[in-house]
From TrEMBL:
This is Reverse transcriptase. It comes from Iris pallida. It comes from the Eukaryota.
Amino acid sequence: MEDLKSFSGLQMNINKSRVYFSSRCPQKEERADILGIARSDLPVRYLGVPLTVNYARDQDCHSLVEYVQRRVEGWQAAGLSFGGRIELVRSVISAVAHFLLQSILLHVATIRRVERLCADFLWRGGMHAVSWKQLCRPRKEGGVGLRPLLEIREASALKLAWRFISGGSLWADWMHSRYVKQGNFWTCSPDNNHSVTFKTVLRHRGVLKSAIRRVMKDGSGTDL
């Protein structure tokens, strides 16, 4: 912490800081006392993102649903046109979902609830004249160009998989050393000991493989 302070010039606020330990870490209180930082437990929200030990469950993402619901309730009295409501959904609700989806893989149930709130807001809580799926089609196909959140979720998962195979980051190097080790990423099978994140990376191997090309060079790193 002193090194961080000297390199960055940032002053850490001890009173607002918390330290989190693994469940397997012994002597948590003693270690927290040495650091001089209060101990806390996960899950917790940081910059609006739920931080959990495992995969973020639907109940861990209530903050997103509650945020969207508050915004929708605030907009209802604005007397907006349908076009205005479309733009609010696009610019505000989708932006929030994009931000979270860059950090965690939202549970499908959470995505469905957010989309239901969006659809109810667009149709003022009445009968939906057009399905949400149709609204998410491109304009030339009769939609309004909203992007399905599940599609954004898949794109985020592919970005994660690309980061893994590209390497060069602490996260990618750690994941590789923990789960792949000396094996072959392209042929290894999912295991019960694999994290949800790594299983997600494995699940998207096929899409990645169809979109990349390998340069042979001396052939030492190419599996034929």
